[in-house]
Specification:
Elements (H helix, E strand, L loop, with lengths): L2 H16 L18 H19 L17 H17 L7 E2 L10 E2 H23 L7 H13 L25 H8 L11
Antiparallel strand pairs: 1-2
Length: 197
């Protein structure tokens, strides 16, 4: 299946989860140690804009990866999600190289690989938002299966301990856990369900 279809479904699920956020929730902690829920939503919104710009050939512009503070972060997130989904759906996008300065590599990435990065990021960030809200989030099994080889391809090691690293060091997944829980553990999340500890 086209990676864009997986990405679109993961993004749509994240929009549905973010829609549950109320103003009083924005100070809640998240699995991303550096961000409360407001910070996480700002990051997610900015990344949508950055990936959309990369799909449009403007990923090298650092301003494309920033989003101004929004008076309504839920609405701003939904709008950014629509923008990136439309950018990925544009004719010829799979033939383009995506410049992703936030990954720390100057050379353009093949579109399928770049969209795969976006897909796994938003599959996991949907869970991050759910965890902050104390809601279980279990994506469709085929999304977890599609994410697994991407998660395995993300390098592990000391760089994940650096400030600003996209993922924490991988954790062991207990035997018998779901594929999605394995994805979470591989990307440094503790696959615990329910409210944050």
């Amino acid at each position: 299946m086209d990676i864009r279809a997986f990405d679109r479904r993961a993004v749509r699920a994240s929009v549905e989860m973010v829609a549950k956020v109320r103003p009083d929730d924005l100070g809640r902690p998240t699995p991303c140690a550096d961000w409360n829920l407001a910070g996480l939503l700002a990051h997610m919104t900015a990344q949508h804009h950055g990936f959309a710009a990369a799909a449009e050939g403007r990923g090298a512009d650092p301003d494309a990866w920033r989003a101004p503070p929004a008076p309504d972060p839920v609405r701003a997130y939904a709008a950014a999600a629509e923008r990136v989904t439309a950018a990925f759906a544009a004719e010829g996008v799979l033939d383009r190289g995506f410049v992703l300065p936030e990954v720390g590599v100057d050379a353009p990435f093949p579109a399928v690989q770049a969209i795969g990065f976006h897909f796994i990021d938003y599959l996991v960030h949907g869970w991050d938002v759910a965890r902050a809200l104390g809601i279980d989030y279990v994506p469709d099994p085929d999304l977890a299966e599609a994410a697994w080889p991407i998660a395995l391809a993300v390098p592990d090691g000391g760089y994940r301990r650096r400030p600003g690293a996209a993922f924490a060091p991988s954790l062991p997944a207990p035997p018998g856990t779901s594929r999605f829980d394995q994805v979470l553990a591989r990307l440094g999340r503790t696959p615990v369900h329910g409210a944050p500890q």
